Amino acid sequence: MRAKATFILVMLIFGSIGLFVKNIDLSSSEIALFRGAIGSVFLIGASFFVKQKFNLKTTKRNIVMLILSGTALGFNWIFLFEAYQYTTISNATLSYYFAPVFVMVLAPFLLKETWTWKKGLSIVIALIGLFLVVQPDTGASSIAFNHPVGISYGLLAAAFYAGVILINKFIKGLSDFETTVMQLSIASIVLLPYVGITENMNYAGLGMQSLVLIVILGIIHTGVAYLMYFSAMKKLKGQTIGVFSYIDPISAVIMAAIILQESMSVLQIIGGICILGSTLLSEVMGKKDEDKVVA
Asked: Pick from 224, 223, 278, 268: which is nearest to 246 by CA?
């Protein structure tokens, strides 16, 4: 029960990321850089307290995949944070949750997984959901946002996150903790020259609010949240983790509605249900199929 409560809390923390990012007066690439840097330093420090060792030999064997996945993670954040700037948190979150759909499409080609009619049905439902979510907004929010651009950024973020998921399948012999620390560190290393080229990196005028929020994003939303996530994962079944993961997008939509007064049309709500429902359906059905094979 305690593990479930911990996992739910982690999902609520992840669900609140958009609220913080929207109020940080930095570019998306700078936010991604600082999140990765602060998060990786925190987790490296925490590794001494939780007695987590790093296997350098195994890390070297996986270095190419770690560089690819770390780079994909960094740009995934950039595009997600851009999505928050151009559209509502609800739209950004729902388009970002298209990542499992990309994985379903690519897995048969990259991982040699078999196609099933259930996966095909899930993809069709998700596409219908996306079509409903991108319907033009006729409300007041349409003036403040550029929804098509924001949703496009959300889908780009989803594509990069799908890349992280698929690349992780090829990483062997490393714990989730080791993999995450390496990915965060590599994301920071890769993003540093990118930010140096694209931004002026002058933070003398950065307000206290932005400074506090970026520290919270790095420590709480990344360092602490990942530590709690790994701790809870060890005590929960895979299907429980899969189902509980949907607390993240649902809470993000609810918090945005309550705190930012963001609204969604009935069609967009139905679209969101279709997107989240399709990935949940695929996950639950996939687990059932695995159980049948094991039996």
From this structure: 278
